[in-house]
Design goal:
Elements: H1 2-17, H2 21-68, H3 74-232, H4 238-242, H5 268-282, E1 297-302, E2 308-313, E3 320-325, E4 329-334, E5 339-345, E6 352-358, E7 361-366, E8 370-375, E9 380-386, E10 392-398, E11 403-408, E12 412-417, E13 424-430, E14 435-440, E15 446-451, E16 456-460, E17 465-470, E18 478-483, E19 490-495, E20 499-504, E21 509-514, E22 528-530, E23 536-540, E24 547-551, E25 557-561, E26 568-573, E27 580-584, E28 588-592
Antiparallel strand pairs: 1-28, 2-3, 3-4, 4-5, 6-7, 7-8, 8-9, 10-11, 11-12, 12-13, 14-15, 15-16, 16-17, 18-19, 19-20, 20-21, 22-23, 23-24, 24-25, 26-27, 27-28
Helix pairs in contact: 2-3, 3-5
Length: 593
């Protein structure tokens, strides 16, 4: 241990003395020079003292020789005097040289001493610096030791992390194998599920067909039973037959008597007439096209948890209606019972703005820039139409559910072919103002769009060309457009200026303008609709929830209905037994009777 400490001390001394070796060497050289100069100075002082003594001796000798040899001849005196003077001059010169040399050596010695002092001062400064650097070095060594300890700790942690990573990789590989196995099992289950669903749907369709057949058989048996009852019933008198009122009620006159004659058996033609009459009695008697004005709520349903945004009846004539809402769903409802048949989900967090349905095909357009196509029987999405650059604001089905027309805030309309397993975007229609509403004519290739600039634009979906344009139809934007079901030259519009207009496409002018003091259109997606016979126009107020029905022929108000507690967003008029449906901002739906 001592040898280690001694070796460390030597290494430290070696490291600490290396910076001062040149200084010590220069100091040693200066000391040698100072000693040499000191010796020369002493020799010079001795020489000067010796020369002074010689000079004094010479002067004393000259004086003595002058005093003692006063009688000497003048020539000898003058020669000796001259020699003494020369010797004195020589000695004086030599003395001056020695004095000068002495002075220069003294100056050099003073300079050397000053340099030595400076060197000593510099050495002391370097020593102070060295001591401070030693302190810093010791601190750095402590830091290095701490860092080394931390490094060792990190190395150990790294080794632990590596071992844990290897363990995690092994577990991950095991999980991948498990997930792959589960995916394969899931795929098999999906295939089996699809097969079972297909079987279930087929069985349900067979059951429905059998039920329909049984229902028809029961109805035919009932009709035959009624005919047999009529045949076996006692015959009525001619007078009672003539006085028979509605629903078989007889009104007999005074003293009228019944005749008990047996009637003849009905012929085959009378049987067929009875069957037709029974079928006619089963169908709703709403006029030529089965249209009846709504009068009161038949079903009130809390359809959605968020704002209702669109409502559409099944275009194929089934007793179904679809609703779209800000809760990202489209729901299918049975209009006869007010119960939900299917719930179709869109993109989470994005409102479903518009919807439409035809048969089993349902479409929903959302603020996620896409449109989804579902089969509501299986509740599966069959297409996801992607291509718009902004939210999709309106959607309609055409060609009996084989094509889709979408409108978007990116100022374009797109036509999509969904008749095959893979959809195809066939046509893009460009315009200069955002459209919030579109409709397709009965020919499936004529379309109309309403825009924020208050104008109408008409399109040919086959070529993508614009066929006509009517500018400034409304002072604000147009929120709804609807072709007349009985005339392709008339279009019903709803505008942000809180009025409806029945427009003649040929002249570009309005036939009737429908207004009311309590009617308002605050939303850009508020709908208006024509009845299936084209005789009535209906819309809901976005402020008080009232439903207004106008006579589309004469322009007068026919009915004002109440039932909603807040503003109505959407309305539609179907062809089935239940005909008018509305939905409000709170998601409440009313099926009107």
């Amino acid at each position: 241990m001592r040898q280690v400490i001694y070796r460390q001390i030597l290494e430290r001394n070696g490291r600490e003395t290396d910076p001062f070796r040149s200084i010590h060497e220069s100091n040693r050289q200066l000391s040698k020079q100072v000693d040499a100069l000191q010796k020369k100075l002493e020799l010079s002082e001795r020489e000067i003292s010796r020369l002074q003594l010689e000079l004094e001796d010479s002067a004393f000798g000259v004086a003595a020789s002058g005093n003692n040899n006063g009688t000497t001849t003048g020539g000898v005196k003058s020669g000796a005097a001259a020699a003494a003077l020369k010797n004195e001059a020589r000695l004086r010169d030599k003395l001056e040289k020695l004095q000068d040399e002495f002075n220069s050596r003294m100056k050099q010695e003073a300079m050397d001493r000053a340099d030595a002092l400076k060197t000593a001062k510099r050495v002391s400064e370097l020593q102070d610096m060295n001591s401070s650097q030693e302190v810093v070095i010791s601190d750095l060594r402590e830091q290095i030791q701490r860092q080394e300890r931390a490094t060792d700790h990190l190395r150990s942690e790294l080794e632990d992390a590596k071992s844990r990573t290897k363990l995690a990789e092994k577990q991950y590989d095991g999980l991948k194998i498990t997930i792959r196995t589960l995916q394969e099992e899931n795929d098999e289950f999906k295939k089996e599920n699809r097969v079972l669903e297909g079987r279930l749907v087929g069985d349900k369709e067979k059951m429905v067909d059998e039920m329909n057949a049984l229902t028809e058989m029961v109805e035919s048996l009932k009709r035959e039973n009624n005919l047999l009852r009529d045949k076996n019933a006692p015959p009525k008198s001619p007078e009672s037959k003539r006085n028979t009122g509605w629903f078989g009620t007889s009104f007999s006159g005074g003293g009228g008597q019944k005749e008990n004659k047996e009637s003849s058996p009905p012929s085959s033609s009378s049987k067929q007439e009875a069957k037709d009459a029974a079928a006619a009695e089963k169908s709703p008697k709403f006029g030529n096209m089965g249209v009846v004005l709504p009068s009161m709520p038949r079903h009130k349903v809390a359809a959605h948890n968020s704002e209702g945004m669109c409502i559409r009846y099944d275009g194929s004539g089934n007793n179904l209606v679809a609703t779209a809402s800000g809760d990202s769903t489209v729901k299918i409802w049975d209009t006869s019972t007010g119960t939900v048949r299917a719930t179709l989900y869109g993109s989470n967090g994005h409102a479903t703005i518009a919807c439409d349905m035809y048969g089993t095909v349902v479409v929903g357009a959302g603020s996620d820039k896409t449109c989804r196509v579902w089969n509501h029987r299986t509740q599966r999405m069959i297409h996801h139409l992607v291509g718009h650059q902004h939210k999709v604001t309106s959607v309609r089905l055409c060609s009996n559910g084989e094509a889709v027309l979408t409108a978007s805030a990116d100022r374009s309309l797109k036509v999509w072919d969904i008749s095959r397993q893979t959809y195809k975007q066939t046509t893009t229609l460009r315009h200069g103002s955002t459209s919030h509403c579109v409709d397709v004519g009965s020919d499936s290739f004529s379309a109309v769009s309403g825009h924020l600039d208050g104008g109408l634009r008409f399109w040919d979906l086959r070529t993508g060309g614009r066929t006509a344009e009517i500018a400034d139809m409304h002072e604000g934007g147009i929120s709804s457009v609807c072709f007349s079901p009985v005339s392709s030259t008339q279009v019903l519009t709803n505008g942000m200026d809180s009025c409806l207009k029945l427009v003649d496409v040929r002249t570009g002018s309005s036939i009737h303008t429908f207004r009311h003091a309590e009617f308002s259109t605050p939303q850009s997606y508020s709908m208006a609709v024509l009845s299936p016979d084209g005789r009535y126009a209906a819309a809901g107020s976005g402020s008080n929830g009232s439903i207004f029905v106008w006579d589309a022929v004469h322009g007068s108000l026919k009915a004002k209905l109440s039932g909603h507690e807040c503003g109505v967003c959407a309305i539609d008029w179907g062809r089935g037994e239940q005909q008018v449906a509305t939905i409000d901002r709170r998601g409440n739906m009313i099926l009107w009777a």
